[in-house]
Design goal:
The longest helix has 37 residues, at 249-285. A hairpin with a 2-residue loop joins strand 3 and strand 4. Helix content is 73%, strand content 5%. The radius of gyration is 23 Å and the shape is flat. A three-stranded antiparallel beta sheet has the order 3-4-5, covered by helices on one side. The chain has a two-stranded parallel sheet with strand order 1-2. Helix 2 (48-59) runs parallel beside helix 9 (189-205), helix 9 packs antiparallel against helix 10 and helix 9 (189-205) runs parallel beside helix 12. 29% of the residues are buried. The protein is mainly α and 286 residues long.
Length: 286
């Protein structure tokens, strides 16, 4: 990057003061967020999000090298706004608001340190940090319960098509030898959040046209639903033919890992199809 610091020592000192204030103000909230990643399986991917965001920024190193570093006082306003949002969240004990304020403040620090053009250039990687912030429980539950019902219904249809007798009552699947409850963890929302985070990064770095990048990102939704139905169907088959105990414990956890790998393979396969199609169109145009 080119620099135009007229008073570099002064700006550096101000930046150090702001960074220290950031650590003091947001330190406990960041530690609490990391604790959530450790204890909440729905957001265990949070550890990877900052690393992926950093990689996304590194991918733009050539573009960033051409930009001029021109610190902007607009960054101070963004920092103050982030701190205001954090304070409001603290008063209301609203973790999502407090954690969102961290991302806003980071964007403000970037603008103050490097300028508006640099912040705009890395706006997507900065916004990507929101994938590390758990949704409020009220929103999560509003999405999870309908997904539980959809997952239970589609699984019931699939299992019945295989000739296995099954009775569905809401989110409970009654088999001949046991009953399976499609709980929150089996709604598919966990897979969806993780796969959306993965597909967003994948689409960002993929060499595709903009419209195909969006399609690749949004494809995570149907893929997550499909692999979750696959997981539930396999669980029902194992419970019927082997025993109810297979619906719990190690095999159940292992199936979750396997279907996520399957989801990634499907996502990668879709990317290859899109990339091949674009190459063919490009060759024809020439």
């Amino acid at each position: 990057m080119n620099t135009t610091y007229p008073t570099r020592p002064r700006v550096f000192l101000q930046l150090c003061i702001i960074m220290a204030a950031f650590a003091i103000l947001f330190g406990p909230a960041i530690l609490n967020l990391v604790r959530d990643w450790t204890t909440n399986d729905n957001y265990s991917h949070g550890f990877l999000v900052p690393l992926i965001s950093g990689y996304m920024i590194w991918q733009k190193k050539d573009q960033l090298a051409k930009l001029t570093i021109n610190p902007s006082n607009l960054g101070l306003l963004m920092i103050l706004f982030g701190m205001f949002v954090f304070t409001i969240g603290s008063i209301g004990a609203e973790l999502f608001t407090m954690r969102t304020a961290i991302v806003i403040t980071i964007a403000g620090l970037c603008t103050y340190s490097f300028g508006i053009k640099v912040t705009i250039a890395i706006a997507v990687p900065l916004a990507y940090l929101m994938f590390m912030v758990p949704l409020p429980a009220i929103i999560w539950n509003k999405i999870a319960f309908p997904l539980q019902l959809v997952a239970a219904q589609l699984t019931a249809y699939t299992v019945q098509l295989m000739g296995i007798p099954l009775l569905r009552e809401g989110n409970v699947l009654h088999l001949s030898n046991t009953s399976l409850e499609v709980v929150d963890a089996c709604s598919g929302l966990r897979s969806l959040t993780s796969l959306l985070a993965l597909s967003a990064a994948f689409a960002y770095i993929a060499k595709l046209a903009s419209i195909n990048k969006w399609l690749l990102f949004l494809s995570a939704i149907p893929i997550a639903i499909m692999v979750n139905i696959l997981r539930l169907t396999i669980t029902a088959l194992l419970a019927t033919h082997i025993g109810p105990e297979t619906a719990q414990g190690f095999l159940h956890d292992l199936s979750g890992i396997i279907v996520f790998i399957v989801a990634f393979i499907m996502l990668f396969g879709l990317y290859n199809l899109m990339h091949s199609f674009e190459q063919k169109v490009l060759k024809k145009s020439h």
